[in-house]
Amino acid sequence: MTATAADYLSRCVAGRHGDLPETTSGTLRLDVRDGASTEHWYLTIRDQRVEVTRSGEPADLVVAGARAAFDALAAGRSHIASALLRNDVTAQGNLRLLMSLRRLFPGPPAAHHPRHLPPAGRDWLDGGTSR
């Protein structure tokens, strides 16, 4: 698993994301604060593709927060909506893009797809002790 938000953004976000809606397009800037300095990550979304650059240019959506908050997002320990509600990050601009941003970060490490069904029978209910 990637250790930091910077690693995750530079290595894992750029490219095609089939789970992004085809109609989604826009620019996002992530302002990652670390003490007195701020790193800017600029994401351009178009046609299910994401381009990542380092820029402080104006964007359709600006999400700002401490490095620890973005590291938690990159590790799957936090969700963008939860971080926003806890005020770990702030968002200004086109909030529809915020839901696209959540698709770019991983889910919890032990998560599984909700449609994966348990095996047939009752074994899964009681740990396999019913016979």
Describe what this molecule looks like in 3D.
The structure is a single chain. By secondary structure, this protein is of the alpha+beta class. The protein has a single domain (5-104), classed as Nonspecific Lipid-transfer Protein, Chain A. It has helices at 5-13, 67-75, 80-85, 96-104, and strands at 15-16, 26-34, 37-46, 49-53, 61-66, 89-93. α1 packs across α2 (67-75). The longest helix is centred in the first third of the chain and has 9 residues, at 5-13.
In short:
With 131 residues, the protein is α+β, with helices and mostly antiparallel strands. It has helices spanning 5-13, 67-75, 80-85, 96-104; strands at 15-16, 26-34, 37-46, 49-53, 61-66, 89-93. The chain has 4 helices and 6 strands.
Number of helices: 4
Q: How would the global form be characterised?
A: globular
Mean of all residue-level pLDDT scores: 83
Would you state the CATH class? Answer: Alpha Beta
Largest sheet: 6 strands, mixed
- Number of strand elements: 6
Task: State the end-to-end distance.
Answer: 39 Å
Q: Could you tell me the strand content as a percent range?
A: 25-35%
N-to-C order of helices and strands:
HEEEEEHHEH
Strand order of the largest sheet: 1-4-3-2-5-6
The SS-based structural class is alpha+beta
What is the CATH T-level topology?
Nonspecific Lipid-transfer Protein, Chain A
Question: Radius of gyration, rounded?
Answer: 18 Å
Count structural domains. 1
Instruction: Specify the helix fraction band.
Output: 25-40%
CATH architecture: 2-Layer Sandwich
Can you tell me the CATH superfamily? SCP2 sterol-binding domain
**Low-confidence region ranges:** none
Characterize the quaternary organization of these chains.
single chain
